[in-house]
Amino acid sequence: MTKVYEDFDQETLDNEYLISRTVPSLEPFIADYGKFSAEGRDNLDCRVDVSCGDHPDQLLDIFPAKGKDGKAAPVFIFIHGGYWRMLSHRESSFMAENMVANGIAVIAVNYSLAPDASIDTIVQQCREAIAWTWRNAADFGADPDRIFVGGSSAGGHLTGMMVAGGWHDAFGVPSDVIKGAVPLSGLHDLEPLRHSCINEWAKLDEVSARRNSPVHHLPDAGCPLILSYGASETAEFKRQSALLADAWRANGWQADIFEHPDRNHFDIVFDLRDFDSLLGRKVRDMIG
Fold first, then answer.
1. What band does 21 get if pLDDT is binned at 50, 70 and 90?
2. CB burial readout 154-176, b (16+ within 10 A) else e
3. What global pTM score does this model have?
4. How many Cα neighbours within 13 Å face the side chain of 41?
5. What is the Cα 96 distance to its own chain's centre?
């Protein structure tokens, strides 16, 4: 069969990146994202649909927290997945109750979706959310010098682009604005995706794929990373996480990467709801 990317033929490459095929159905996971996020909004102090940019899609749900020992609370910013074309901030605060109870403020980020929005636009909007948080953290009792970011799948890619270098001056933030990151099942080199069926909505060319690949835009100094993925994920998704971890470690920066034996691509994020879980303990220790 004709090879379309390295040793992959079209069908094999598509199957590697059609990650939804690794579970019987997406619907139960999406339902739980929404259910647990709604519970957070119902049970916690929450500022909903806060604008953080000029586009009407640029919205945040903010969950303030009481910091420990009278200090301002650290902030965990979560960027949702959905292959850049699904979901919203409404399904992205499922960890809020756990984190707020442990003195960590939470922000769920909304962004415009593909194919109407390009990957460039989505990355820019997420960076504007980071910059907004840094400028406004004190208004909801949080510490602008203790910002952490995480995301899953496409949100893992966007997390990678938040810890990438070269963008901070244009957004008026310090180069170390992010103190630690949690890219879960992320995509860190988009070149194979532009050869796959995913490009039907990602609409990447060679230049934009490279421009939006975290492994090609490493910072001058890297913050600590926690990378993970489920055991049932495809080889390509696992390789994508290893790409960023290897690049990070090659520069002498901290990157904790592990395969979770009991999780899949879609439920690994629920460990953020429980600081006694494997991933939860690591995130808690990172944030402090």
1. very high
2. bbbbbbbbbbbeebbeeeebeee
3. 0.98
4. 18
5. 15
